[in-house]
Structures
1.
Amino acid sequence: MRGRHRLASQTRALDAAEPDARISDALVSAGISIDDLVYESSRTLQWDGGHVAPISSFERIADGIPVVSFFTGCAGMDIGFEAVGFENRASFEISETFCNTLRLNRPGWRVFGPPMHSGDVSDFESVSTTLASLVDMPFEGVFIGGPPCQPFSIAANQRFSKTSPNFKRVGFNHERNGSLLFDFVDLIAEFRPAVFVIENVPGLRDIDGGRQLATVVDKLRKCSYSITTPTIYNASEYGVPQHRRRMIVIGSRVPGMFAFPQRREPVGAGSVLVDRLPEDATNHETRNHMVRSVRRYMKLSYGERDHLGRVDRLNPMRPSKTVIAGGTKGGGRSHLHPEIPRTLSVRECARLQTFPDDYRFTGSTARQFTQVGNAVPPVLAAVLAERITQAHF
């Protein structure tokens, strides 16, 4: 059932349903599934350009250089470094759900986090004692870490005015997370890795007029590190089908000059978002919208926003807007599929983030969205890992 016939059948089913009914119930009598839904204007654009390089396509040039990650999350950075040939020596993560994801996908990694370990980077004694049994000092490998970004995030707080008590972009004054960057720096100073990577949202560079980050950089320089200028990179310029800006700082105590590669041609979201995923696709639970929401979504053009739901229909010819942490039970929102009037599933968001389809996320759907939305795209991390290897090893 295609084109006008599909739209007509869909419209009849929605017209016969109560506005507050769930879309799955409304479609049963018509024999239509959620992924059979179409917009009033569908499939007028189709991505026919290049495709995302699979994470498995990267050459393993690092040849076993050890890497330790902190604030690992669901391992977006780690997967990228792994693809280039780095060997995971240890991962520290405080969330038990995230640790479950790591252990499910990489049972051979040393994952330090609940329930056997706190995984808490702010507990210097525990983390340093654990790590000292696994690596030499100085450490001839790489430390990677992205301290929790909420205190520096604009996206997490854009719905509040700066004078509101709910406005949380307080940066380094945040009681817990604002100090985690300094905890990470203390571990770098203690173990002196050959190279370290600090990644975060762009707000980390600019909060407090840059003074606090300058303090961090100065401390690391006193530890004999050469440090790159804090730079913001957009993942869409390096083979990721999504606009995602991350701040990167790289330090090294070994010779070499790091430089990111030339920008690449953008890849449209339509390169990874298809009408139907395979039947065995994991993490592909889709939100059971109300009928009234779907009726609004159906009228949207490519790139247009539904202002009531604050969701955007993606344009398949352009990189996606940033994938954000959220879920089917609140805590955020995802974008609308370019050809199906519904929000994206976790698996579809993971594709925009360049996770391989066989990488599985544990926990509730909301927590799966959180993991994917907080991650560094593995392909961006792999590009970064390539350049670090070429420059410093």
2.
Amino acid sequence: MNGEILVIGGADGPTAVFLAGTLGSLFFCAALVILAVFYGIYFAKKIAQRRRGIQTTQLGGHGKERSVRWTEYILSAATGLVVVVELISIFQGWNIMPWPVRIAGILCGGVGDLVFLAAVRTMKDSWRAGIPKSDETRFVSEGIYQYSRNPAFLGFDLVYLGILMMYFNGVLLLFTMWAVVMLHLQILQEERYLKRVFGDVYLAYKSRTRRYLGRSHAGDR
């Protein structure tokens, strides 16, 4: 809380200090739990697939178009560095947001964890991080994918937004925006890949399911 005395409901003196410390601990623990759950899901899935001989992470590498390769390299840097800045912000207590916004951040991050878990479970062994170079994967449109074409990316965005709301500062804002933009560019690349590989099946799916959230007769252009 950066050492300030937080006044809630007219409280002052020792009561205000106690409330400030309690809320500070709540946000600190909640932020770490949200990140631990999110990346726990990611690495648990990666380890499980590795045991079955599946290469989960396929970001960058040779054999891809230059634009695709560099977008994935930059995406890797953005999603890695934003976690570093998140952790620094959490441990340093950098924040300028009032506590109601920070509470909303906890809810947002928690939903992000749940959305990401649902996406990973629904994809099963077809889940990859990056555009596959040669793997043949099954087209998935059931479960949470009925309501979002990119629920895993949506999970990333919600977790990033949740941490930002809990520990809002200029540096974290810049890194969060960078990561979100790179995730969106990766989505656009994957859409072109899916159209090329699955053709009309993907186009029909695209016409009824929005890019991030919701169903539509016109689709998300």
